[in-house]
Structure formats: structure tokens, C-alpha cells
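Q: I have 338 residues here and want to know how they pack in 3D. Can you give me a structure?
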Amino acid sequence: MQRTNERFVERLPLVLPRPAYAYFLTALICGASLALRLMASNVLPIGYPFVSFFPAVILSTFLFGLGPGIFAAIFCGFLSWQFFIPLPPDGIFDGGVALALIFYGLVVGIEIALIHFMQRANFNLAVERERSRALAENRELLFRELQHRVSNNLQVVAAMLSLQRRHVDHEVAARALDDAASRLALVGRISRALYDPSEEGQDLNAFLTRLTADVVEASGREDISVTVVAPPGLTLESHVAVPLALIVAEAVSNAIEHGLPNRGGSITVTLEDMSGTLSLEIADDGKGISPDFEIDKGSSLGLRIAQALAAQLSGQFALHPRPEGGAIVRLDLPAQAH
């Protein structure tokens, strides 16, 4: 209802098909004010010749604009003079009557001026809001186009690396090119899925479920099951969600490659929002790690990338042995980081 009222106010003064209609309706409003004043004559004390005409001037100016407002002020003043201001025998107004007329003119002049400037300001505000809306639409369109092009470029670079890998015979170099190509393609897919110019974000439970399924499918393993547990409706801004998704992808890939290289197993991704502090755990039931394992000294490039992404978010990243077997990757993000 409030939005409807705002739209109606923004349309004032009303633009009628013909300007004469506005003056005709203004005359009717003034006539209604005269009738109201005549009916109230028995209950009002002596004086108050303009009491019902001030609202007529305000309403006419508010609805129809400056011209009809001035017309209402003059017409109502004439009606007051004719019906409620007695003319002295000599035909000359005394000082009190002249002062009342001056006061009436001053008051209605201020009313008309205030309403006119208010409506001009309201009109300018509506124009600026429309301009801002158009700029926001253009910004969103350009942002989507830019994001689309960036994602496509990443996919192209990933494809070029894959093509280049066919001409590399060295096993380590070929594996490095394969890893680089897959990571670039993953970054492109995540960016396209998560970057949102409206900053409304995307439900992370559904997104992480699709992401981990893609990682498992890309690994070529059908004996790995992944379970995602996250609060329903949890969303993050894109500058946090993208690195978080990359960390999940790297941790799941690492669990498949190093924790479950020769047998099937399960991986559980748990995301919790505890009073603004975000906690992420990726647990697997693989062969596990030694208690003195250090990421910096390990051979897994994926874990080092995940650690760097966590530092980018001012988070704490760690890899621990799982008591019942396997390993747990944990990321804790402070509230101010997201």
C-alpha cells in the first residue's frame, strides 16, 4: 500500500487531458468549500471568513499544480469577500479587513509556494531514481557480460593447456599441465555460478553439492560418495564464496588422490555458521596422515593452494588425522571475513 501511495504522489500534480479540466475541478472544490463554510456559519463565531478556503487552496495546488492553485487562492478570496466580509457603507475597507485580506494572501501564497517546490523536488527525485535504476540495470548487464567473458576466457585457457599437454612427453610436466587446466576450468565454472552483481548470493548447500559431485566425476571415480551438510538458505558474498568453493574443491580432490587412491570411501563436507563464525570441515575415511604432518612440507599442491586461499580470507586452515581413521581438513573464518 505504501508503494502505491508513493507512486501516486510521484505523479502529482495530475496531468489531465485538457488543462481546462483542472480549473473546472478547482472551481468545484472552491464551491464545496463555500458550501461547507455556509453550513458552518451557525456554529462558528463571528469572523473566520477563510477557514474553509485554506484547505481548498492546498488541495487544488496539491492535485493540479501551480496555476490551478493560484486560481483557487484568487477565487476563494473573492468568495470570502462576497459572502463573509461585510462591505462598509462608504465602500472602503477598514484596517482590520485589509489586514485580514493581506494575511489571507500571505498564507495561501506560502502554501502554494511550499507545495510547488515540494512537488518539483519530488519530481526531480523520481527522475534521479529512474536514472539510478537505469544505471543499475546497465551495470548489472555489463557485469554479467564481463563475468561471462572472463569465465569463457578461463575455459579457453584451460582448453589450450589441455591441447598443449598432448605434445608433452614428460610425465611430471604433463601432470602439471593437466592440473593447471582442470583448476582453471574449475575457477571459471565457480565464478560463473557464484558471482552475483545483486550481491544476493546463492544457496551454498545446493552449490557445494553440485561442486563436489563435479569434482568426483572429474576424478573418474565411481566408488567415492560425498555428503554435504550445510544450513539451508546460507549464502555468502561472492568474494568469500568463490575462495571457499575452491578450498572445498581442492580438499575433496586431495582426499580422493591421497586419502583414497586405491579404494572406495566417503567424504563429508560440513559447513556451520556459529554466531557469525563460519566453520568448514572436509572429512574422509581414507588412509589418513601422520600426526606430525605439515602442509608446507607436503607434496600436495592443492593443499598449499587451499592454505593460501584461507589466508586470503583471514581464516585458519589446518589438516588433522581423524580419530576413527582418515583425515579432516578444517577452515575457520572469523565473522568480519564474511
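Q: Anything worth noting?
A: Strands lie at 224-229, 265-274, 277-284, 316-321, 327-333. The mean pLDDT is 81.
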